[in-house]
Amino acid sequence: MKSQRNISEFILLGLSYDQNTQIFCFVLFLFCYVALLAGNLLILVSIQCSPLFHQPMYYFLSHLSAMDICYTSTVTPKLIADLLVERKTISYSNCMLQVLTMHFFGGTEIFILTAMAFDRYAAICKPLHYLLIMNRTRCHLLVLAAWAGAAVHAFPLFSTAISLPFCGPNEIDHYFCDIFPLLKLACTDTRITGVLVVAFSGMFGLLVFIVLFVSYGIILFTLRNMSAQGRRKSLSTCGSHITVVILFFGPAIFIYFRPPTTFPEDKIFALFYTIIVPMFNPLIYSLRNSEMKKAMKKFWCPLLFSNEAHS
């Protein structure tokens, strides 16, 4: 690869040049990242240490929380640290690693959201066969399939990134390394490569979004035949899932399903699926879910009271 590039690092231009804006963003994103870690760890531990872990929906939710932490941690700590320095740089190897890990963990999250939609479809549309359909072996296989599908999605993009030749310009107008900004810097004609990336990455996201949209459409149609109480409970659960899907996929499709180019607005849209959605996932899934709230109270309240008694 050394024969194809003469740069050892990239300069990230970040979100803003204004120092006051950078200080504000530092405080804001530090709070968001701490809240994200705390919220997702709270859900992860609460599910792992309660009987909910044996229910398929919460089994997938625990994996989603783990992926939220991993996915955001590929980008956010670097973003927060860069807001305190004037010259924001990232080495070539770390840049390529960021491309790989971001798309791998992001792809895993997308497939887990798909598994959660399948679980809700089985629970609402096939209630009599639900336990047979969503047995623990199938749940394990769906999670393994999510990891495998993410690898199939991420490694071609990673291979594309490391094969690009870089001859001089090394300024990336973003706060992290991604495939489109790198295509813009490559000292070769990347039009065909860009079209292939859109076809592979953009179409991948769009097709999964359509599958999820149709699945939840079928689920909502089926709710007409349920009792009022069952309808309310199912709508509460599915409403949480649909909210997360829209917030995550909307900005991602805008960035990846279009001609291979970059806009200044991309950085704002990227904040949604790299920081904002993973931060709000714990609130969306816990505040609208009575079983999740009960599990949290049952696990954490005795711990808090026992600590107070010891003190």
From TrEMBL:
Domain of life (superkingdom): Eukaryota
Molecular function as annotated in GO: G protein-coupled receptor activity; olfactory receptor activity
Subcellular localization(s) per the UniProt record: Cell membrane; Membrane
SUPFAM superfamilies: Family A G protein-coupled receptor-like (SSF81321)
Record flagged with keyword Membrane: yes
Family that this chain belongs to: Belongs to the G-protein coupled receptor 1 family.
Protein name, as recorded: Olfactory receptor
Species per Swiss-Prot/TrEMBL record: Zalophus californianus (California sealion)
